[in-house]
Write the structure tokens for this entry.
Amino acid sequence: MVEIIVAPNAGFCFGVKRAVKLAEESSRLTEEGKKVYTLGPIIHNPQEVERLKSLGVRPVGEEKPSRGDAVIIRSHGIPPDKERALKEEGFEVIDATCPYVKAVHEAVCQLSKEGYFIVIVGEKNHPEVIGTLGYLKECEGKGIVVEKMEDLEEAFKHERIGLVSQTTQSEKFFKEIVGELALWVKELKVINTICNATSVRQEDVYRIAPQVDVMIIIGGKNSGNTRRLHTISKSLNPNSYHVETSDELKPEWFKGVRKVGITAGASTPDWIIEQVKSKIEEICEEHYCSC
Amino acid sequence: MVEIIVAPNAGFCFGVKRAVKLAEESSRLTEEGKKVYTLGPIIHNPQEVERLKSLGVRPVGEEKPSRGDAVIIRSHGIPPDKERALKEEGFEVIDATCPYVKAVHEAVCQLSKEGYFIVIVGEKNHPEVIGTLGYLKECEGKGIVVEKMEDLEEAFKHERIGLVSQTTQSEKFFKEIVGELALWVKELKVINTICNATSVRQEDVYRIAPQVDVMIIIGGKNSGNTRRLHTISKSLNPNSYHVETSDELKPEWFKGVRKVGITAGASTPDWIIEQVKSKIEEICEEHYCSC
């Protein structure tokens, strides 16, 4: 039997995977006669949104939910007053806020309690940041969002700054802001809330590629992060192949093979990964692999 | 009468001025038959060290102090066990440690108590850093000195880092280290202990030069920080002059003048500033200035 190792951080990040799983599970509520909605598209992948629609889970906007229907909060999160309003309107609220985003909500409140003025490094209009600002207001903290260097001016008026980041913030800009602030304020406490999904995905490849006979990287041929995964993998294991779907798998890659590794870029849904895994098992059952 | 404004941050920084003043005051102990020593040259200015010698205050090393003599701790500070040893040996210890350096000693202990692993951005062999490490050990804290990027490796093993800086650290390197650390550790608390002597000296010029008729900048003609003060001053007030000593003052600069500003670069002792001030008053008494 061939052994297949799927990288733990393959494809969507942890928070998105979890949100999709919650959406899938919520689809059973339709059996109770409820309708199930997501507050905006649950991920930026149209096929995946279509697949969920086929299970009865659709974004709010296409239809207006009624009292008693279920509403799923996306991985980005929402402000707490919005969540309360949904409950008061009689919706069943399913919270798929990413735990890493919840950690940002907790961090701004913890820092506020410690007396810090809050700086959130992020995009002012990003749903995640809007949610975090809501939590900051809720715990009576004060703070600003910094999306360009000039935004720091307001922060310089405060002696003690507590800093967090939008989870998907660029590391380069984060470093610049932290360095500048540390220089000008009396005390700076940073809780780094950047999610390291991209780097852990790469770390998986560094770990798995050298220990398998063949490494399969799934993702769009024009996806930068997938191509980088393939480049890293090829440097560690020459039998590394980049495919978009299971149709591209070639039986001859697996001749005499005992161990296969699989990973996927950030835009690849789990079911595409599953299809690739099943196809490899199928090829191996046809005796191409080593037994 | 001419009004003369001496910039509050002219010449030596606050800590050095204070140490020199303490050394001067300690010279009275020689009247009690004690000898007075400084632990190393009190400032990096030979004329000033010579002047203090003439008052009976000389660096240890030229002579060995005996029990009962006074020993002055320089503005850099020393480790607390060294200070205790001096007292146990029977010396009268006069502590001229700069209050900004004392603030670093307090900061490392405060951060240690809060459970942080300490990073001191500074030079490993600098007397100030050696003193700070002594205080860190005294309060049972753990930490390292970072003088180049590679030194950070040890810090990355810790989740919560408390960071301080040698008071005379370069702002550029400090920013780089803070940015890098914030990215890789879970929590970073920075207490910025860089002394802003250079920047406050410049701020004085921005404030004083526009409100006086003549601005005098004292300092070595080859001193970069003095030349910068002169450049800033000239941009705000064309009647700005750079002199090394009072001998270079020209009476015609002060014709009809009511208000004169004075500042000095970092290597200029107070007594040279005083000489310049007296000379201006003298010129004005000879009726060159406005009355």
